[in-house]
Amino acid sequence: MTNGHAPVVLDVAGLVLDDDDRRRLAHPLTGGVILFARNWRDRLQLVELVAEAKAIRPDLLVCVDHEGGRVQRFRSDGFTPLPPMRALGEIWMDDGGGGRGAGAMRALEAARALGHVLGAELRACGVDLSFTPVLDLDHGGSTVIGDRSFHRDPRVVAVLAQSLMHGLLQAGMKNCGKHFPGHGFVRADSHVDIPLDDRPLARILADDARPYEWLAGTLASVMPAHVIYAKVDERPAGFSERWLREILRKQLGFDGAVFSDDLSMAGARRVGGVDVTYAEAAALALAAGCDLVLLCNQSVDGGAAVDALLDDLLAAQAAEHWHADPDSEARRLALLPRSAPLPWDDLMHDPAYQRSLERLP
What is the pLDDT of residue 192? Predict the structure, then answer.
């Protein structure tokens, strides 16, 4: 285990670890790994990959974007196909002619069941954390969010997300709400562009950011958006002390972990009007209030960018451009599961899991 702050969450190139992967996972700044569909062949391979990674770093946080719908990394060899979150919002709105909130009650139970199935299947393969739930509102114009959103109404989003997080907790998994304070209003995709939201702060807080206010005591972690909210700060939210330290932590009362979104996305390549390297972006995100920083899909071409991030960020720490934060490290460690998962074969015979399967949308 590390005695310092290990804020970097990186990726690995393939189905097995190579010598470069092992070296990077052993780096003192590496605290997590994020998996993608390219890291998946079948359950046995995934279990072996994760086990080897954790043999190198026992406190490694193994993460994945596994929401359901079009964002589900593992889809075969027994993994349950999960619907997009919009399906839960649609159930909420459908009372079947009966009224009295029948649709809402079905949606809440379906959300809990979905969280339980999602978390239990991942944990049975050694994965610690899925970056879910999406708390963005469905304003209707964002293609990158779209059906990943539960609903347009922040009240519906908050209660469905809370039920989904209850299901995750049944599986022993924490959660990550994203993308603070809201990515659903802007049309541009921060993977390939730098989205700009020119709404005033009061309007954002009264609408898109409300789920974060209501769930501040329930969320274990939060991922801010690579969106510039120009009337609040010239920097994207993930690089903004105002958004992270003043609003998220002080005003809304959130005390869990904050992940940056992927630093290789276009929305993270220019901060405050200046082009930045991955290491510079990481240092800026950490200084602004992120506890962990993600760099994704940079190991597939040899990993030079990953090595540069690790080495340059270590040099930036030595130069005191950012400081190792024991509170941030404690927040990282708090995301690790506290209970042993059910092995896959036992999970398949677990009555609670089977009931959750039956209640999926």
Answer: 65
Residues 140-151 have pLDDT tens digits of: 988 889 999 999
State how beta strands 177-180 and 221-224 pair: parallel
The pLDDT of residue 268 is above 80: no
Distances in Å between the alpha carbon of 270 and those of 41, 182, 275, 284, 316? 36, 19, 4, 11, 19
- SS3 call for 234: coil
- Beta carbons of 138 and 85 less than 8 angstroms apart: no
Q: Could you tell me the residue ranges of all domains in the chain?
A: 8-316+326-358
Quick count: other Cβ atoms within 10 Å of Cβ 296?
Answer: 18
CATH topology of domain 8-316+326-358: TIM Barrel (3.20.20)
> Are 267 and 261 a contacting pair, CB within 8 Å?
yes
Which residues carry out catalysis? 191, 261
**Can you read off the two tokens belonging to residue 198?**
């020119």
Could you read off the pLDDT of 4-60 as tens digits, one per residue? 899 999 999 999 999 999 999 999 999 999 999 999 999 999 999 999 999 999 999
Task: Judge contact between 268 and 238, C-beta under 8 A.
Answer: yes
As to burial, measured by CB atoms within 10 angstroms (0-12 exposed, 13-18 middle, 19+ buried), residue 198 is exposed
CA angle in degrees (0–180, nearest 5) for 238-250-149: 50
Helix H or strand E encompassing 9? strand 8-10
Burial bucket for residue 19 (CB in 10 Å: 0-12, 13-18, 19+): exposed
- Does this model's pTM top 0.85? My answer is yes
3-state secondary structure 277-304: CHHHHHHHHHHHCCCEEECCCCCCCCCH
CA atoms within 13 A on the CB side of 236: 32
130 membership: H or E segment, kind and range = strand 129-130
